[in-house]
Queue: 2 jobs
Job 1
Amino acid sequence: MPIRELVLVNDPRLRAQAAPVEQFSAELARLAQDMLDTMHAHHGVGLAGPQIGVMRRIFVAHIPAPESEEEEPLHPRAGETFVFVNPQITRRAPETVEGEEGCLSIPGWRGLVSRPAWVEVAAHTTGGEAFSLTADGLLARIIQHEMDHLDGILYPDHITERDKLWPIETEGEPPPVELPTKPPAV
Ligand code: NI
């Protein structure tokens, strides 16, 4: 279960379009496991193919379960592991909500991003089985953030106000991050 090297911001691979997965194979299941291991090693809640240099439409997600019974779960589906292959958003909420995001490919930064409050997603498992899922809250945010990665979009692309993107304490200098000069088309 190797942990893969992360692709970091300003690498052109994070700006490229990922291609659909065509082979549903044991190799794809191993890739998903590597992605989950890499995500957990970096304490992330989601990871998309391009973030490890795999230019395919696949992402994984996992919201940590509470560590004790007293702790409130971050989401009703906390503790579940999700793998989405060739995902498509089939419906989205008309209303947006603002929430905090970070990205394993953009260490040292956090931002406030407005996104639809819920989404319905159709996708496949690594075995090629179709499924759909409706998600709200943190899971909806993760799904939309990861799906953006498959189209070369990073969360700061959604932020136009400087005070909605801020550096956090990390080892070393945070990498430079550009804000868009105009809001992206939705
Ligand atoms: Ni990300």
Job 2
Amino acid sequence: MEKILFVAAEGLPYIKSGGLADVIGSLPQAILKKGYDVRVVLPLYNKIIDKFFDELKLETSFRMKVASFDQPVRIFSHVSKGVTFYFVENQGYFERDGMYGYSDDGERYAFFQHVVYFMMNDLKYYPDIIHSHDWHSGMMAVLGRHKYGLQNKEIAKARHYFTIHNLLFQGNFPSSLIVDQFDLPYSLYEDGSLRFHDGLSFMKAAIVYSDKINTVSNTYAHEILGEAFGEGMQDILRLREHDLWGIVNGIDIESQNPETDTTIAQNYTVKTLTQKEKNKLDLQKQLGLRVSKDVCLVGMVSRLSFQKGVQLILLKLKDIMGLDIQLVILGTGEQQYEYDLRQSENMYKRRMVYYGGYSDEISRKIYAGADIFLMPSLFEPCGISQLISMRYGTLPVVRETGGLKDTVIPYNQYDKTGTGFTFRHFNEEDFYYVLRQAVDLYYENPTDFKALQKNAMAIDVSWDKSADLYIQMYNA
Ligand code: GLC
């Protein structure tokens, strides 16, 4: 049985800041079901300690001496739905309130990646496949090739795969890290392989050294080859075009299921879709909106960043609130957006709510209670929320980019096909135009609206097909 190790910086049910955590919390299980030994390794952050420490098993402890590191390490483990998760403990680096955004991030994730190799040697666990995700684990392949593989044949044999969840975040640091933190030869900088804008780039290292690379949708895999979405890496990516795959994300359809979700007020299926409105009433009550089953409720669950298109909503808010709707937005992010949303909420009391925080419970209630879901992203490698909203029969309004384009089928009024509403150009007028179409359909043509909801609930958003594609990529 082939052994696969996922190396990542976050994963559910332990810790989440973005969609990466959803993938790390569900894709391994899907691959495991196909007959592979899949494990995951994550850093042990404070939040994981708070919630899970009593359940963690101590696997091993050792002192790690490499480059400028000389530190004690403990490795813990925990099993989630059949998948073993390893956790790398280091108080100085990971027991902080947040996860990323510290000035020593380069050093922290250099440490993490060294530990993963030390752990393999210590546990005599040698994966056939090392599958790394986003910049935090971008140096795994080069460390395998130019350092740990030179010392150990088992490590040298491993194949390396890398998934780009978001090319915007690249892990770019001063070139001195190459020698000081990674103990790699400086010639790898001089010959250009690790060099990006006069520094070291973890992302570039992954693109150059992995056997295969993928992003989380076909459209995004194509978009990043151009200047607009290539984030400066387009030329490097083009060199690897033949090894670049696009594999769309799935979701955990057992946990995200309106039929069995225990956090929502009323369960429902395609057949009992009329029951869905009870969730609207529940959400309105809980958030202090005017309670009415007839009003069109528009929801959004998102990180508040420019990537997610929050600015389009804010720019057009007056017109949007001029429609006969209620608006609920959940998320945290850039301060200016949070501030603007808070101000707007005051202007539209009982019609608009901004929930400034993360809550799995309220998110689920929004997916279940809303009629329309907003995701007007500037770019979107895949996007997970639109998949969840469709599964809950809540029609997404999305921009035709990345995974949004690949997963949401636009409404066609002639043959009644579609699972949502889409617009092409990133501007507030086009966004508003389709949102208004969606709201009009809700009020003026409930039959079609319902047909779309049924279409949306029927599409396959499971990991099944994509897990097969990952296995194909591992074997290509
Ligand atoms: C990132 C991307 C998002 C994707 C997720 C998981 O958060 O922005 O589009 O769905 O990673 O792959």
